[in-house]
Amino acid sequence: MIKTEKLNISSEIRASAIEGIHDPEMWLKEESDQRSNLVVGRNKPGNYNGRTTHGRTHWSFHEDNDAARTISDIIFSTIICNKQEWTTDQVWGAAYNKGDYAQTHTHGKNRISWVYYLSCCNNCAPLLLEEAESEEASAHYDHLYDEKALMGYTRNLCHAKEIIPETNLLVYFNSEVVHEVPEHKCNHERIILAGNVSKDSKMMSWEEAY
Prior knowledge:
Elements: E1 2-6, H1 11-21, E2 46-48, E3 51-53, H2 61-64, H3 66-79, E4 86-96, E5 102-105, E6 111-119, E7 127-130, H4 135-140, H5 147-150, E8 161-163, E9 169-174, E10 178-181, E11 190-199, H6 206-209
Antiparallel strand pairs: 1-9, 2-3, 4-11, 5-10, 6-9, 6-11, 7-8, 7-10
Helix pairs in contact: 1-3
C-alpha cells in the first residue's frame, strides 16, 4: 500500500514547523541511537546560508512544536478511519542539505508510515519505495526489520516507485515497505515531516472494558 494525497496546509503553519526543525533544541540528542542514521550524508552539523544545521529532530517533535502537532493531526485524520484504535506514536522533521541521503530502511511492522513535504522543489531527491509483492520477496527483506542488520545496509531499488517531491504532498504507506532517498543534489534544503501511526497499545480490550 503506497498512496499520495495533496494537502492544503497553510504556508504559515509549514513555516512554523520548519523553524522548529532548525531549532537546535529540537535536534536529535541520542547520537548513538541506531535509528538516527536515516539521514547519513553528513554526520556532523553543517552550515546552510549562515545557519548551522543538524539534519533531523528528535522522535517526538509533535509534542514540542505546535505546527508539527497540527500537521500530524491533519495527516492522522486523512489516513485513519477508525481513530479510536490508532495513535500517532512518532513524528520527526528532517532537513536534507546537498549531499544528504537516507539509507534503505523500513519502519518496522504493524504501522502506517508517512512523509509530508514542507519545502522542496520537483528536482529534489525523490522518495523511492519498493513493496514486497510475494512471500519470497518478503522473506528476502526480513533482515531489514532487525535494526542492527539494517545499519550500513544500502540496496539499489531498481524497480521502486518514485515519488517526486512537491510541497504539501503527503505520502503514506505500510511501514514494512522498503524505501530510501538518494543523494540530494539541490543547493536548497529538502524539508520533510515524517511519522508513524500504530495500533494504540493502551486501548482496553472488550473484555477489559466490560
